[in-house]
Specification:
83% of the residues lie in helices and 0% in strands. The protein has one domain. It is mostly helical and 309 residues long. It has helices at 3-19, 23-33, 39-63, 69-97, 99-127, 142-162, 166-176, 182-206, 212-232, 238-259, 264-308.
Length: 309
């Protein structure tokens, strides 16, 4: 047992318990930067440990009926095959170009994903609070199903490659598109993440990318961390923690890309994709803001008409 890894596992578990975020987005860069774990192994091990951690949370949310099962199903329809495809792509690249080259590619992908997830976390914390009315129940129409499958497929592929972002990116869609209540956002997100991470984790295990001893060390610390963090969540301002988490993710991405000296041929495409996703996120947020303004104007006009009548 490595006490240092156990301590870091406890810290990550504490964050997950308090905010529901930060597992894959922080553990993977820590394993690479501080413990010298190869990027592909770090991603595979992190996903495998995350699957076990999320399963415990998923059971709790199912028990408390805070899960929209239909959304979970359609998210998984997209995410599970694409997560396996992401792992399969790693295996193909390893056999064709060698492990060192693939580790550099995965490193660039992890750094780009961390940038996107960090910025998305800040958008969620700063801009998506009370943006649109929330609802507990939701009937899924075709547009909702299509949105869920596309969201699942996109995040699933990213998870298979990098282990980062399953919670934050899907939570943004659950808030902004499906307009679920906070309790159902967390419950639906956690249950889907458990399914997705098991699919990706087993695929990485089959591919030989999981260090079971390392995963066990992380779990020894993270399980009590999650339990304590969930108790502290009611006492510590979650908004502050999420903002701090977003900043830490962005800083981790920059340190990872600079310190590990990712080749330019990998760095430029990775950052280009990240920039496009960030622009899309901000465009999406601006659209939501305008929608809210139109709704407020319509309410004001209706109230004025009612007062005049």
């Amino acid at each position: 047992m490595d006490p240092v890894i156990v301590i870091f596992g406890f810290g990550i578990g504490l964050l997950i318990g308090m905010t529901g975020m930060g597992g894959g987005s922080l553990m993977t860069p820590l394993l690479i930067l501080l413990f010298g774990i190869q990027p592909v192994t770090a991603v595979g091990t992190d996903i495998f440990y995350g699957a076990i951690t999320k399963t415990a949370g998923a059971w709790r949310h199912l028990k408390h009926h805070t899960v929209h099962r239909a959304i979970v199903f359609w998210l998984a329809v997209g995410s599970v095959p694409m997560a396996i495809a992401g792992v399969w792509l790693i295996e193909i690249l390893q056999s064709k170009y060698g492990e060192d080259t693939v580790n550099q590619v995965v490193l660039g992908a992890v750094g780009a994903a961390l940038l996107v997830v960090g910025i998305a976390t800040l958008i969620r914390a700063l801009f998506l609070r009370d943006v649109i009315p929330e609802r507990y129940a939701l009937h899924l129409y075709r547009r909702h199903i299509i949105a869920a499958v596309i969201t699942g497929a996109t995040t699933g592929f990213v998870i298979g490659l990098t282990s980062a972002g399953s919670g934050t990116l899907i939570a943004i869609v659950l808030i902004a598109v499906f307009r679920l209540t906070p309790q159902r956002v967390v419950g639906t997100d956690v249950v889907h993440a458990a399914i997705l991470l098991w699919a990706a984790g087993l695929a990485h295990w089959v591919g030989g990318n999981v260090d079971l001893g390392l995963a066990a060390n992380i779990l020894v610390g993270s399980i009590p961390g999650v339990l304590i963090g969930s108790q502290l969540a009611v006492k510590i301002p979650t908004g502050f923690l999420r903002n701090a988490l977003g900043v830490v993710m962005i800083a981790s991405a920059i340190v990872l890309l600079v310190k590990e000296k990712v080749p330019t041929a990998v760095l430029i495409p990775s950052l280009s994709v990240a920039a496009l996703v960030v622009v899309a996120l901000f465009t999406f947020q601006i659209g939501l803001h305008r929608q809210r303004m139109r709704q407020d104007e319509a309410k004001a006009l209706a109230a004025a008409a009612k007062a005049a009548g």
